[in-house]
Amino acid sequence: MRRAAATLPRLLARPIVFPRPRLISLPPLSPRSLPCLRLGSSLSLSSSPPPPPVDTVAPLPTSWDPPRPSSVSHAYADLEPYLGCSMPGKRLKVAVLLSGGVDSSVALRLLHAAGHDITAFYLKIWFQEDFENFWSECPWDEDLKYATIVCDQVDVQFEVVHLTDEYWKNVVSHIINEYRSGRTPNPDVLCNTRVKFGAFLEAIGSRGFDYVASGHYAHVIHSSSKDGLSILKLSKDMVPFCNSCSVLVQGTNLIDVVVKDQTYFLSHLSQSQLKKLLFPLGCITKEEVRSIASLMDLPNKDRKDSQGICFLGKVKFSEFVAKHIGEMEGIMLEAETGDYLGKHRGFWFYTIGQRQGLRLPGGPWYVVEKDVQNNVLFVSRNYFSLDKRRRIFRVGSLNWFSGSSPINVEQLQCKVRHGPGFYECSITSGSGISDEESLVVHLSEDDQGLAAGQFAAFYCNKVCVGSGVILDSWDEKCFPICSKALEISRMEDKSKLGKPVRIINLETSKTTICRSEH
Asked: Is 191 an active-site residue?
């Protein structure tokens, strides 16, 4: 049975107009005067509260309101040890991206304590009218309430920037196309590069801000020379986990380590973008951020960190994919035997190394390969066997903060995902695709989750030097797919397969490895 979303081709076929982002000043407005809008509605540009649109979501109950502090602490002397990344001693005009979370709120208060002239901005987006609003509650109403109180505490101007069309054009459309092509993009990297520090920087470019700040955990060092390069360093939150004087190398003992360093998500910014950025949290840890939030009596001091897709908050990944791409039923085959094991919702829901959502007994099962053309998943219970790991991959769309590749290509470290783990690596020239420059990356250790479309960030002595997009991965130990599985994958009428085979528990089965056709 085939159920593909009919809305996508129709949407991509018609031209989309992208107006300049609209800024709306909030100080005259109460948090309750900003209704949560459904698709197709908009806010008035006047300074007075607009009449509620016909198609609105009812406001949250009054009992929900975040707590307002009884008093505001002005003991900024206590914050001096934490101002190292806030450029104290200078009177700067800074635009602060405020999400309503504790990180960006503390960043704002640190900049205020450093004596800067700051204006807070909330980036607001929603989906195009072609798709229904599948949030069960207003996704930004809670954020705006917290953000407004944080700004009211220190009398900071607060504005909302509408970047719906820019977000759709530069992030959502790209993500959809990547998933439909069988690749696994990183929404957070795209959001930072194209929206937060792309479209937003353009929107406020004429307002004379010296820097744009956010609650990211990263440390930017700016040159004293106008023509000098800015450097992106690991945050203090990452430093305690560094190994000796270098960086922490990937290892199995890191599975439970949690760090907030976000240089990986910022690794694809341009040098011109980096020069405009300020990250006050780069010199402090997450634990210290919570302590500062309590000291300042911030209303969101106990609020949990968001874990969803960039800008999508509580929306689950599977919901996002289902609503924007649809479902198309396909089959799952065991990579070693070619046995027909069951069906799946569409190859775009799965990435290499994934085990969740397969719903197969006798596991754990892992996705080891995808046949995008025939919508087939190859799965295995032997994904972590030593002879099937990968340590070589190719990257393209290269971005180097210095403008050129590093000199010491044999002394680099690499991140292939957000987290505490690094690999020692070396890079060599690779064959390009469509005349695009590419490099071959050789990791010091094996990795089981290399996925095309993800980013690989490169580091040298705790400094992020750039990144690239993973194009593919291969070596002599890539996962073997047997000839029977490949033959079944190419069958036009897969209904002839009948019912899935009965899966035997791994402990009692003796799997025969078929000859690899890779």
From this structure: yes
Q: What is the DSSP letter of 287?
A: H
Catalytic-labelled residue, pool 36, 191, 414, 482: 191
Active site residue 514: no
385 to 236, 364, 389, 513: CA distances (angstroms): 36, 13, 7, 13
Answer yes or no: are the C-beta atoms of 381 and 417 closer than 8 Å.
no
pLDDT in tens, 12-41: 333 333 334 445 444 333 333 333 332 223
CA neighbor of 37 nearest in space, from 23, 20, 50:
50
Q: Which of 151, 310, 464, 482 is catalytic?
A: 310
Closest CA to 166 of 140, 200, 132, 143: 200
Q: What is the pLDDT of residues 336-369, one digit of tens each?
A: 999 999 999 999 999 888 888 899 998 899 998 9
Domain coordinates in residue numbering, the chain? 7-34+61-218+284-318, 327-383+480-497
Of the options 3.30.559.10, 3.40.190.10, 3.50.30.30, 3.40.50.620, the CATH number for the domain spanning 7-34+61-218+284-318: 3.40.50.620
3-state secondary structure of 107: helix
User: What contacts 15, CB < 8 A, 6 or more positions away?
Assistant: none
Q: What is the pTM of this model?
A: 0.77
